[in-house]
Amino acid sequence: MICPSCATPNLPGAELCHWCVFALASIDRSMPGTHVESHLLNDTVSLICPRILQIVPLDATLGAAIAKMVGQAVGAVLVAGTAGELLGILTERDFLTRVAGAPDFAKRMVRDYMTRDPETVDAGDPLAVALSKMDLGGYRHLPVMEYGRPVGMVSLRDVLKHLLKLCQDVE
Question: In whole angstroms, what is the distance from residue 79 CA to residue 65 CA?
Answer without folding.
Answer: 9
